[in-house]
TrEMBL record:
It catalyses: (S)-cystathionine ketimine + NADH + 2 H(+) = (3R,5S)-2,3,5,6,7-pentahydro-1,4-thiazepine-3,5-dicarboxylate + NAD(+); (R)-lanthionine ketimine + NADPH + 2 H(+) = (3R,5R)-1,4-thiomorpholine-3,5-dicarboxylate + NADP(+); (3R)-1,4-thiomorpholine-3-carboxylate + NADP(+) = 3,4-dehydrothiomorpholine-3-carboxylate + NADPH + 2 H(+); Delta(2)-thiazoline-2-carboxylate + NADPH + 2 H(+) = L-thiazolidine-2-carboxylate + NADP(+). It comes from the Eukaryota. SUPFAM superfamilies: NAD(P)-binding Rossmann-fold domains. It holds the Pfam family OCD_Mu_crystall. The lineage of its organism: Eukaryota, Metazoa, Ecdysozoa, Arthropoda, Hexapoda. InterPro entries: NAD(P)-bd_dom_sf (IPR036291), ODC_Mu_crystall (IPR003462), ODC_N (IPR023401). Homodimer. Binds the thyroid hormone triiodothyronine (T3); T3 binding inhibits enzymatic activity. Its EC number is 1.5.1.1, 1.5.1.25. Belongs to the ornithine cyclodeaminase/mu-crystallin family. GO terms for cellular component: cytoplasm. Transmembrane segments: none annotated. GO terms for molecular function: hormone binding; pyrroline-2-carboxylate reductase activity; thiomorpholine-carboxylate dehydrogenase activity. This is Ketimine reductase mu-crystallin.
Length: 334
């Protein structure tokens, strides 16, 4: 059994491969080639510290894997004298024949990357036809934490927005992220917007990645035909958007098993989901009305983590064996 740490994982992550692994996972879900249940959650000391488990199995030649991700969310970690990520994850990657653990793959970066990639996959497949050439369109990101930052990088990589607005509850954090991104990309397209309505006004694509238990985006502010990736999870996975917004939109999910549990509140209120993103990828589902707002309610799936763990493991082992064979050749030539 090997441990692949965060530093090694980061060296091996690329946006194109992450996008592909997530896209394949979503498709396999809707082809019935996965087994996964809604994540389990326990509260530590009955407070806001959480431990989640996410077991899954994905049947696929390239990304097929059996695994289980363990995640802790400790909201105070970033404020410790020696700060730690609030969300820490590790993925147990197992042999399909024997159940033996082949590797534990550090999963904090993977969780960030695959979550942002899931939003990008959903945007491409649900909103792709409305993406315009050139850079006239506007992206609005709500939340400037880890997910806010990684979504900004991911959407800068895959799309061509002319303006990327950032709103955040703590103004200084939002301003700092906009500044950091402008410096990284030597641009001025990242703009911190203090007012939520102003941030949404005219935005073509919206991403919500906060832990807010109250809606941060309201239906009346959103332009017809816009696409929203709702990713943040406070106590529920649907608290960032107001009820009216759900009611007037086509809502897509990543997997029914998760939605039945984590979106139960919406289901109990009579909410009907359009279907899984995997069905859209397969070409079986689409939004017909151009002016309808679309929402991807991204819960995050164990099989995405399985696919990512398999990909990182394969790349890691491949690098190791290349290094070994080049050092053997060196020894022989000496
Ligand atoms: N769907 C999925 O697959 C995944 C979802 N998530 C969820 O995404 C969310 C963001 O995660 P991450 O970026 O890692 O977390 P961070 O702790 O890094 O950031 C949290 C963000 O939420 C904001 N926030 C917290 N409380 C509130 C509030 N009451 N009102 C408004 N904003 C608030 C913070 O703003 P401030 O700077 O003001 O504190 C900050 O922008 C979390 O809810 C997490 O559970 C995470 C991973 C995967
Ligand atoms: O999919 C994940 O991973 C997570 N989703 C919600 C919050 C914790 C991690």
């Amino acid at each position: 059994m090997i441990y692949i740490n965060e530093t090694e994982v980061l060296k091996l992550l690329t946006w194109d491969e992450t996008f592909h692994a997530v896209e394949v996972s979503m498709r396999r879900v809707s082809e019935g080639r996965v087994d996964q249940i809604a994540r389990s959650k326990i509260k530590i000391l009955n407070r806001d510290k959480l431990l989640f488990t996410m077991p899954g199995y994905l049947d696929d030649t390239q990304y097929g894997a059996m695994g289980c991700k363990l995640i802790t969310v400790f909201p105070n970690n970033s404020r410790l004298p020696k700060p730690l990520p609030n969300l820490i994850a590790n993925i147990f990657y197992m042999d399909e024949e024997t159940g033996v653990i082949k590797a534990i793959v550090a999963g904090t970066e993977i969780t960030k990357w695959r979550t942002a990639a899931a939003s990008a996959v959903a945007t491409k497949h649900i909103y792709g036809k409305k993406l315009k050439p050139g850079s006239s369109q506007i992206l609005a990101i709500f939340g400037s934490g880890e997910q806010g930052r990684i979504h900004a990088h991911c959407f800068k990589y895959f799309f061509n927005f002319g303006e990327i607005r950032i709103w955040n509850r703590t103004v200084s954090n939002g301003q700092a992220l906009a500044r950091e991104l402008n410096e990284t990309y030597k641009t001025d397209i990242f703009k911190f917007v203090r007012d939520r309505k102003e941030c949404v006004d005219g935005a073509d694509v919206i991403i919500t990645v906060t832990s807010s238990p109250e809606p941060v985006v309201l239906a009346d502010w959103v332009k017809p035909g816009a696409h929203i990736n709702a990713v943040g999870a406070s106590n529920t996975h649907f608290s960032e958007l107001d009820k009216k917004l759900y009611d007037c939109s086509d809502v897509f999910i990543d997997y029914w098993n998760g939605a039945k549990v984590e979106l139960k509140g919406l289901i109990d209120e009579g909410m009907k989901f359009k279907g899984e993103v995997g069905e859209v990828i397969k070409g079986n589902l689409m939004t017909v009305d151009e002016r309808k707002i679309t929402i991807f309610q991204g819960l995050g799936m164990a099989v995405e983590d399985c696919a990512m763990a398999r990909m990182i493991y394969d790349k890691f082992m491949n690098n190791q064996s290349n290094q070994k064979s080049s050092s053997t050749q060196l020894t022989k030539s000496i």
